[in-house]
Amino acid sequence: MFYAFVVTGAWLLWHLGFRIQVIGKENLPKDGRGFVLASNHISAIDPVFIVIARYWGKRMLIMAKDELFHINPLLSWMFRNVGVFGVERGKGDTKVVEQAIEKVKKGQGMLIFPEGTRSKTGELGKVKSGAFVVASQAGVEMIPCRIIYQHGTMKLFSRVRVCFGKPIPAEHLDLGEQKSAAKLRAAKQELLEAWEALYDQHHF
């Protein structure tokens, strides 16, 4: 109930402050399968735009930096209740990630920002491996997501497009038991190409 209330309230609030357009929503799984939603990252409110764009369905897991949970106890409580979980960057927080992977296997979606940090210019950054490891171990497909701001970066009352691309099949993301570096490079390249195609097709 809390999740439904927050998402509905955010939908109303953010549509007043931004003109949000959703493209490719039909590419999101609707049959209860787990998935990894991999988005570029420009603004701190990107996760809000993505959740609003998806709007309804089983609550997604949202991977975030652990520092967010040390700002304020009330904020930490809210984050946990809307599906956010924290991972300590650079420390291989394997237990938390393994628990999340099990939930994805059982049919939850997980939102990850593979660049690991926000882009100050709107340009794509270096893609890290975490999203691909999760998708590989969970055996699920990856949905490319490109957030496009009218002015390149987030500005109040500007237009925003949230674009969902065609799923990258699970077999393209299977890194094998040895986590093949060649397969990982190919998977990263496929995501980057999907992001570029979404921008080429839908930029302002």
From TrEMBL:
Q: By its UniProt entry, which InterPro entries does this protein fall under? A: Plipid/glycerol_acylTrfase
Keyword check for Amino-acid biosynthesis, yes or no: no
Per its UniProt record, what SMART domains does this chain match? PlsC
Protein's UniProt name: 1-acyl-sn-glycerol-3-phosphate acyltransferase
Residue ranges occupied by any Phospholipid/glycerol acyltransferase domain in the UniProt entry: 35-150
One biological process term in Gene Ontology: phosphatidic acid biosynthetic process
What span is annotated as the signal peptide, if there is one?
A: none
Q: Which species is this record about?
A: Candidatus Allofournierella pullistercoris
Q: Could you name the domain of life of the organism this protein comes from? A: Bacteria
**Key words of the record:** Acyltransferase, Membrane, Transferase, Transmembrane, Transmembrane helix
Pfam families (UniProt xref): Acyltransferase
Q: Which residues cross the membrane?
A: 35-56
Is the keyword Ubl conjugation in the record?
Answer: no
- Entry's Gene Ontology molecular function annotations: 1-acylglycerol-3-phosphate O-acyltransferase activity
